[in-house]
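Hi there,

I know you've been waiting on this one. I reran it after we fixed the sequence typo, so this is the corrected version. Both the input and the resulting structure follow.
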Amino acid sequence: MINYLAKKFINNYQNYDNNKVREQYGTLCSLVSIGCNIILVLFKLTMGGITNSIAIIADGLNNLSDVGSNLASLFGFKLANKHPDAEHPYGHGRIEYVAGLIIAFLILLVGFQSLRDSVLKIFNPEKVVFTYIAAIILVVSIFIKLYMAHFNKIVAGKINSTTLQAASQDSLNDCLTTAASLIALIASIYTDLPIDGIIGSLVSIIVLKSGIEIFKDTVNPLLGMAPDKELVKEIADYILSYPEVLGIHDLMMHDYGPGRRFLTLHTEVNCNDDIMAVHDAMDIIERAILDKYHILTTIHMDPIDSNDALTNELKEMVATIVKDINQEYSIHDFRVVTGPTHTNLIFDVLLPIDDQVDHKSLKKEIDQKIKNINENYFTVMQIEHSYI
């Protein structure tokens, strides 16, 4: 049905990287989900009251929280596509992540409420009345939620949406909770034990677990996640395929919401090449990355002398010293400034993002190892951590 509606209501529906198309897909999925969940809420709360089942009522309240979640998604997609303004020059894309946080909080709120009611039912049980119509409604609910999980997952993959991915996972969790409610309803035929309260508690715990997972999935991009390693490698290989680029470093990717990524990096270029030709090549690379990956890129050029024998020899010497300290360390931006009394070796040392070494001690160690080779070599080094 989603594919049919997409073809009918979304112009250029296969252009998934277009922000307007993303918004329309998000709106469509949210509206369909709202309709399905409202139907489930009405049926489950009615049947929960008729059968006196706290498990079914808890399941219905969970679907009610889903309506709130879908509304948050709907407004999230709408606001995320607002044009950048003076206060938000990078756009409003992260509102989609905020919508995901609202979904998580609503799920947690309902989970705590239903857990409290279920525990009370264990100590103060009430007779659950089995009816076939209630059982049929729960079975139908499972199939509806499976369908919702399916279309949300498919669309989430197409438009790269963590919000719809969270909605899909939430629907799968609802299938489990509804199945648990069905088991409690059937069990009421054979026993007077407080199965309903026990199942309701289990349902509530599943809901809470889902809320915690969705919270983690949505807060991570707000804090700033590391970019996908395969994407970084692909972009790096692409940039290095240009003959003007001798090396790259200080690559940083900033995520301001789906379709709003920014990339900055340094490229090492031959200082003897025509600066205008090299600059033109960097412009071409920036435009190519925008077209190919939909990422706005800014490149800083670092000129190096790759033809000077002394520079190359000293660079290799320093790189070996740094590697001997730690195989994951590397250097870049290496330059040599010679003088009548000493020679300055200028370079940056790159460390892994989670390396905890003391920078001052590391500088002292590298400096001493270089002076052991030649006491007239002075170091001017900067210690950096990789952002990828």
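Quick highlight: The mean pLDDT is 84.

Best,
R. S.
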